[in-house]
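P.,

For your records, the input lines for the assembly:
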Amino acid sequence: MTVEQDCVALDQFPVGMRVLAVDDDQTCLRILESLLHRCQYHVTTTNQAQKALELLRENKNKFDLVISDVDMPDMDGFKLLELVGLEMDLPVIMLSAHSDPKYVMKGVTHGACDYLLKPVRIEELKNIWQHVVRSRFDKNRGSNNGDKKDGSGNEGVANSDQNNGRANRKRKDQYNEDEDEERDDNDDPSSQKKPRVVWTVELHKKFVAAVNQLGFEKAMPKKILDLMNVEKLTRENVASHLQKFRLYLKRISGNQQAIMANSDLHFLQMSNGLDGFHHRPIPAGSGQFHGGAAAAAGMRPFPPNGILGRLNTPSGIGGVRSLSSSPSSGMFLQNPTDLGKFHHVSSLPLNHIDGGNILQGLPMPLEFDQLQTNNNKSIIPGNSMAAFPSFPSTQQSSLPNNNSHLVLQGHPQASPSAFPGHQINKRLEHWSNAVSSSSSTLPPPPAQNSNSIMSHQFDDGSSSYSIPFCDSTIPLAPAMDTNPRAFYRTTDLDSNANVQPGGVYYDSLQMRQSGNYGPTTDALLSSNAKEGFIVGQQKLQSGFMGAEAGSLDDIVNSTMKQEQSQGDLSEGDLGYGGFSSLRTCL
Amino acid sequence: MDALVAQLQMQYRNYTASLYQQGFLDDQFTELKKLQDDASPDFVAEVLSLFFEDCVKLIGNMARALDQTGTVDFSQVGASVHQLKGSSSSVGAKRVKGLCVTFKEYCEANNYEGCVRCLQQIDIEYKALKTKLQDMFNLEKQIVQAGGKVPQVDN
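C-alpha cells returned:
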C-alpha cells in the first residue's frame, strides 16, 4: 500500500511542494523563484536569512524544503542551514556560486541535503523534491525501528507514514478480519511493524489443541501453525505464544492454586502482556472487582460479545478468557468449574483494553470504586489507578505518565486511554495479591516487563510503556482531529503537535483520503512515533470513545463499531502511508 | 506591415545572434527567455533590470572597498565580486561573469592593481551589455507593435 500510495502521492507530490528560497541577491532570487514556479512548486522568497528563520519558526509545517544561498550578509548560509536542520528538521539545499569543493563539503557537514551551483538550471530543480521524500522516508524508517524495539518515541515521525502505513494497514486488516490478533512486542525486531495478533480464547484453544496433538515436547511452531490453520497467523506469532506458554506452564507448575480456575485465562492474560500479573484468584466475592480493569489492562480486543455488561463479575479478566476456554484448555485449566465463574467476565475491558479507554468507560470508574473500597487496600495510591474512580473527571493528571508523550494531553477521557488498562492491571494485581496469599508465586506485578503488552512500565515510567496494541503512548487525538470519522472522541484528545510530521502537504492529502478513520489515525499515530503513540490504542480509542458514552452496552457497541471501522480503515494503513504522502504532497 | 515585421524580425535575429557570438550572452540567457511566458511576459526584462541594479550596487561596493586609504580589505572586495559573479552567471551575462572570475583571482592574490583594472573593466562591460540589451528589447517592442511575434533566437 505504501508503495502505491506513495506512487499516487508522488504523482501529485512534487507539484505544490512548498519551497522557501533565501538569497540576498535579488537577481538570483527572482530567477530562482521563476524556475521553481516552472517546476510547479509553491514558492516563498526572502532575501534575508533572518526573515527566513522567522517564517520557518512561525509555522513549522509551512514548508517542505528550504533553498538557501551560502553567502548572505545578515547570516552565514551554513548557519541558517544548521538552524533549520535543528529546529525544523527540514531538508535544506545550498546554493552558491562557489564551486570550491570545500564549500560543498561544508554544506554536507552542516547537514545540507544538496548543494547546487549557480547558475541554477531548471533540470536540477526538477528533482529536488526527492530530498523531501527521502528525509521523510528516513525518518519513518527510523521511527519504525524505534517502535519496534521499545515502543518509545521515535524521531522523525514524518516519514513513518510509509512503513507505518503498511504496518497499520496490515494491522487493520487483521482487526477487521478476525479477532485473532497477536501482539508481539518482542517478536522479531524487524523494521516494519507487524500486525498484532491477539490470542483470544478461541485461538488459544486451537493452539492448545494443536500442541496437545503434537505432544507438548514436540510441538514446533510451524507444525502448530499448520494444525491451527488460522489465517493470518504467522509462525512467529505461534512461536512467541508457544514460548510464553511454556514459561507459563513452568511458572504455574509450582502453583496449583494459581492455576485453578484461571489457568487458561491466566495464561492468556499473561501472554497478552500481563506478565507478572498473574494470578488472580478470583474470589467469588470479588464481584466488584472489575477485573475488567485487569482484563482491560491486558486483554486485547476481545471479541465483542455482550459480556461487557458483566463487568462487575468477578475476575473480570480471567472471567472473560475463561469463557470459552474452559473446556478445551485442559492443559491449563485445572478447575474447569471455576471457569464458569468467569463467564461473566466482561469483555468490555478486554476489548478495549489497549486503549484503556474501556477502562475509562463509564462503567469502570464505578467498578474501580468498588474495587477499591472493597478489596483494594493494597491498591497503590501512587497509581494513577487510584485516580481511576474519578476517572471521568480528570484522568490525565492522575495517570502516571511516564511518557511525556502520553495522552495526558489534559484530556480527561483521552488520558486514561493508555493507562487505564495499565492501571487496572496493577490494581488487579494488587488486589489479587492482597486477596490471595499465593501471590507470592507470581513475580511482582510491576515487573518491568518490556515484553508484556500491559507492561507495568507504565508505572515505572519507562518509556516503553506499552499498552496492548500500543507501541507508544501518543494520544490519538491528533489523528482523530484530522479524521472526523472514526473517532468518537476526536475532539477530546489534544492533538500533539507531533502529529504533524510533515506539515500541511500531507495533511491535506490525508484529509482527502480519509474516509478511513483508521488510516489516518494510524498514520497520525505513527507519525507521532516520536511521541510514542499507540497505534493499537487508537483503535481502541475510537472504540473507546464510543464507550465513554456510558453503558457497557455502548461500549460493546462501540467496540463492534470499532471493529467495523477498523475494517474500513484497513485501507487506512494505506491511509497512513497516504497520510504521509499527503503530507509531502501538499 | 508584414514586410516591416519581417524586417524587424530579421534585424532582431541578427542582433541577438551577434550578442551571443560576441560573448555578451550565453546559454543561461536562453534559459531565462524560456521562463518568460504569458504569465510573465516581461520576465527577462525584469530580471535584467534587477541585474543591472545589482551591478551598480556591487561595483559601488567594490570601488569603495578598493578606494581606501590604508589597507584594502580584499576579502570584502572579493565578497562583492563573488556575488556579482553569481548574478551575472544566472542571467547569462557571459563577459561580466568572466571578468568576475579574473577579478576574484586578483582579490585572492591581494593584487590591488589587478583589482582596480578589473573593476574598471567590469564597469565598462556591464554598461555595454545594458545598452545592447536595451536595443534588443526595443527591437522586440517594435516587432510586437508592428503586429509580429518576437522570433526565438537561441544563439
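Two observations worth noting. Chain B touches chain A at residues 28, 31-32, 35, 40, 43, 46-47, 50-51, 53-54, 79, 82-83, 85-87, 89-92 (CB under 8 Å). Helices of chain B lie at 2-21, 27-34, 43-66, 74-91, 94-108, 112-145.

Regards
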